[in-house]
Amino acid sequence: MIQSAANSLSPSFYGFDSLAPASRQSKDDARTEKTPKRGELTPEQQRQVEALKKRDREVRQHEQAHLAVGRDLVLGGPSYTYETGPDNKQYAVAGEVTIDTSPGRTPEETIPKAQHIRETALAPAEPSPQDRSVAAKASSMESEARHALMLQQREEKAQSTQLYQGVQQNRGMASNVGKYLDLFA
């Protein structure tokens, strides 16, 4: 807080003790005054520092939760946005961890990876809106991969059924061919 120079300097500062009014404060009264000494913080500034410390702890815990669960997805360490407090110290007020959210090469790889992305995004006790958005995208990726896997399995089943039917048809022809071979033998 900034005070005007007229309010903060007493007449004795300039050496004019004789001009000081009779209502001048005693030394005991001055000690109980709430004006902080040089380098000390006012009660309001101290509350700001405490709030910044609390926010710093929360931000760092939040990002560490992402790291703990998704270490293999992390593309770099956490990055923080800082704010300088009244004590001239830096406090983290926001942070982020960048993770790999690309799908796997196959649906079989994509499904567990999408689940892991979602778990990583929702790891903190209080996920942010961005965390929830990443988790929703991971759920969508998983759903699409499951659908692609189902289509792939359906296609494989259809191909194996056609192959089986072809073998069955060829067996009938093979038995007829065998009859003809027996005639010539």
Describe the protein in words.
- The chain is mainly alpha-helical and 185 residues long.
- It is built from five helices and two strands.
- The chain has helices at 5-8, 27-32, 43-70, 107-121, 129-184, and strands spanning 79-84, 90-96.
- It has a two-stranded antiparallel sheet with strand order 1-2.
- Strand 1 and strand 2 (90-96) form a beta hairpin.
- The chain is rod-shaped.
- Residues 1-33 have low confidence and may be disordered.
Can you describe this structure in just a few lines?
With 185 residues, the protein is mainly alpha-helical. It has 5 helices and 2 strands.
Strand element count: 2
Structural class from helices and strands? mainly alpha
Amount of beta strand: 5-15%
Mind summarizing the main beta sheet? 2 strands, antiparallel
Number of H/I helices: 5
Assembly state (oligomeric): single chain
Shape: rod-shaped
Q: Give the spatial strand order of the biggest sheet.
A: 1-2
Radius of gyration: 38 Å
Unreliable residue stretches: 1-33
Order of helices and strands: HHHEEHH
End-to-end separation in angstroms reads 114 Å
- What value does the average pLDDT take? 79
| Estimated helix fraction | 55-70%
Q: Can you tag this structure with a few keywords?
A:
59% helix, rod-shaped, 185 residues, mainly alpha, disordered N terminus
Helices and strands in order:
Layout (H helix, E strand, L loop, with lengths): L4 H4 L18 H6 L10 H28 L8 E6 L5 E7 L10 H15 L7 H56 L1
Antiparallel strand pairs: 1-2
